[in-house]
Amino acid sequence: MSQADSPIIKLGITNANYYNCGLLVINWIELPTEEEILRKKLAEMEIDQDDDYIVLEVNAPFKCTFPDHLDIFELNNKLNRLGCLDPAILTAISKYDTLPLMRIVDIALDKKYVIYENVTNEEDLGRRLYQEHQLPFQIPKDLEKYIDFQTLGHEACLKDAIRFIPDMHIAEKILCAS
Fold first, then answer.
1. Which of 31, 36, 113, 171 is most buried when burial is the number of CB atoms within 10 A of its CB?
2. Within this chain, do residues 57 and 9 fall inside the same structural domain, yes or no?
3. Domain residue limits at 52
């Protein structure tokens, strides 16, 4: 399935001039798409310049905020650069906090996240960190049976702000959410 077959985001936009005159007509644009197609769709709505529209609604498979004057072309460009990234990644990033739409896409683009799959609790996380040698210290193999994996996972959660997303069976760490 190509990107064109599966839009990630649908934007409800209106012509700013009409809106300011009291006429509300919402048109839906699916992103990502080719820039030429996007410009054609905007031209059909009599939107000639980049600032002639207002974003009224965003339908995305994750929670997010958005400004009225969201740069559709920048967003489309970034979504195209995401390529075949699983939209579940954007959903996982958005579970961290209610972030602006562009920030969620930027975190995904810059790979400023770590997702631990099949981790639903602190013990699973501690075990995963130990097995992948991601602990800040070394534990000899002969002491493995004495390890309290739940405590290791708990400490990692506190230190690295790791959050569990039970419905997705993952834990995640956002490396830079500001």
1. 171
2. yes
3. 3-85
Residue 135, token pair as written in the block: 């602990």
Q: How many domains does the chain have?
A: 2
Neighbours of 69 (CB within 10 A): 12
Buried b (16+ CB within 10 A) or exposed e, 99-108: bebbbbbebb
pTM confidence score: 0.74
Start-to-end CA distance of the chain, whole Å, equals 34
Give residue-wise pLDDT tens across range 75-86.
999 999 887 777
Beta-sheet pairing, 170-174 with 163-165: antiparallel
State pLDDT tens for residues 47-75.
877 668 999 999 998 889 998 888 999 99
80 and 128 assigned to the same domain = no
